[in-house]
Amino acid sequence: MSSRTVIRSGLVITASDEIHADVLIEDGRIVALAATGTPAAESWTAEKTIDATGKYVIPGGVDAHTHMELPFGGTFASDTFETGTRAAAWGGTTTIVDFAVQSVGHSLREGLDAWNAKADGQCAIDYAFHMIVSDVNQETLKEMDLLVEEGVTSFKQFMAYPGVFYSDDGQILRAMQRSAENGGLIMMHAENGIAIDVLVEQALARGETDPRFHGEVRKALLEAEATHRAIKLAQVAGAPLYVVHVSAQEAVAELTRARDEGLNVFGETCPQYLFLSTDNLAEPDFEGSKYVCSTPLRPKEHQAALWRGLRTNDLQVVSTDHCPFCFVGQKELGRGDFSKIPNGLPGVENRMDLLHQAVVDGHISRRRWIEIACATPARMFGLYPKKGTIAPGADADIVIYDPHAEQVMSAETHHMNVDYSAYEGKRVTGQVETVLSRGEPVITEREFTGRAGHGVYTPRSTCQYLL
User: Fewest beta carbons less than 10 Å away: which of 110, 168, 207, 276?
Assistant: First the structure.
């Protein structure tokens, strides 16, 4: 039995178009769009009709950077795949790309199998994986080829966290050379971790233990230096490069210069860098620990460069780097030593709303909102046009969005499994009303109607965004 749904009378917004149109869905896919009120649209019949009058009809968000259940600093990220994907749906995100982790001394396959086991049967929305490569050797390089063939087409490396995830320049170059051959995309955490560790040691020796010093030792210049170095290594390897969680104006300048040279270099930023700052890290009574993440929050003056980068397409994607740790019992591990505070912020539920607020505030256009939150992450990571747009043949991952509703962000009302909100008390305009994942209602008029296990693993093609 086929099932049909029609969404009537909304403003359909994609990265390229805005049109008052009806959308016809059959068996989980979008089969047609037609201008509202036209004979074509009026002729459609369906078992279910959703009235989107006065609302936006947008593609489900694609969050290409999440860490559910990530082990870090002796604890685990507090969202499971079940709680995290449910919260994502509440926020209008219908696909996440999480990170499977290779541990040093183990194979990529072991890491991928472990993350598949964590997610299998748990997710409310569709999901895919990147692979964190912590141990580059001949076997790992061969495995990269196999993973690309299987649809795991991006590999994250770290210039930070010596002794945990860190790769040196030689390991990075070898992985980049391999990705140049197999079509994979290297994602880089670009901070000079060796130098940062020296600064951490010196700060602690001076008795500088509060959360704000986390931001002071992880200097913007060391993000810029690592970004520059990653770009040059990618250039030597002839490989594309995607720099994750860009936070500093100096790092944006490095990306801009590379793109002006015509290189396949891309940048992602996150809502925390656009809306929060070192003022939050300096909050008294250890409250600043709630905002410890890496790359760190920067002084407010960096925000203008990030918004400009998003408008000029020197930054292409906004993801969350969602990696929540509760204040009580987890962030508190770093009382008296900021270097022991688990690094990460909750945000998977907040991204689409915060970026809509950016539309309201005049930072970006409505279409750019959809481009940086839906279409480009789908293209960057080989999910387009199955994900990230509203077009015939695409999965019916659709959000009915009320652009006039007002809400106050709060830990009391969010659905992420964490005891604080990074945006506590922030007023925003715009709210998700209904969410469809492959045509199935996951959120129905602000009620959760989904289920664990609806979300399916989604293999990806190689990057579709190359110059």
Answer: 207
pLDDT at 467: 81
Model confidence at 73, in pLDDT bands (50, 70, 90)? confident
DSSP state of 448: B
- What tokens does 292 get? 């410890």
Instruction: List helix spans (H) across 206-329.
Output: 212-217, 220-237, 249-260, 271-275, 278-281, 303-312
Q: Please answer whether residues 306 and 372 qualify as being in contact, where contact means their C-beta atoms are separated by less than 8 angstroms.
A: no
Q: How far apart are CA 331 and CA 341, in angstroms?
A: 5
Q: What pLDDT, on a 0 to 100 scale, did the predictor assign at position 1?
A: 61
Backbone angles phi, psi at 228, to 5 degrees: -60, -45
Phi/psi region, residue 105 (left: phi>0; alpha: psi -120 to 50; beta: rest), is left
- What residues pair up with 130 in beta bridges, in sequence order? 99
Model pTM? 0.98
Identity of the residue numbered 237: A
CA–CA distance, 277 with 280 (Å, rounded to integer): 6
Q: What pairing do the DSSP bridges indicate for beta strands 398-408 and 56-59? A: antiparallel
User: What's the rounded Cα separation, in Å, for the pair 40 and 61?
Assistant: 28
* 3-state class (DSSP) for residue 169: helix
Angstrom CA distances, 313 to 231, 372, 456, 462, stand at 17, 9, 31, 20
Q: Which helix (H) or strand (E) holds 377?
A: helix 376-380
With a CB cutoff of 8 Å and minimum separation 6, the contacts of 181 are 145
Q: What average pLDDT does the segment 189-215 reach?
A: 98
Residue linked to tokens 């080829």? 145
Other CB atoms closer than 10 Å to residue 205's CB: what's the count? 8
CA–CA gap between residue 66 and residue 76 (Å, rounded): 13
Tokens standing for residue 256: 């801009």
What is residue 33's three-state secondary structure? strand
Mean pLDDT, range 208-227, rounded to an integer: 98
Strands laid side by side in the 241-243 sheet: 61-66, 93-101, 126-132, 154-158, 185-189, 241-243, 265-269, 317-318
Which of 426, 431, 425, 427 lies closest to 404, judged by CA? 431
Instruction: For strands 398-408 and 317-318, give the pairing.
Output: unpaired
Query: Among residues 55, 60, 58, 27, which one has the least CA distance to residue 377?
Result: 60
> Is the pLDDT assigned to residue 356 strictly greater than 80?
yes
- The full DSSP string for 8-29 is EEEEEE-SS-EEEEEEEEETTE
Quote the CA–CA distance of 367 and 355 in Å, as a whole number: 11
Residue with tokens 């940062």: 196
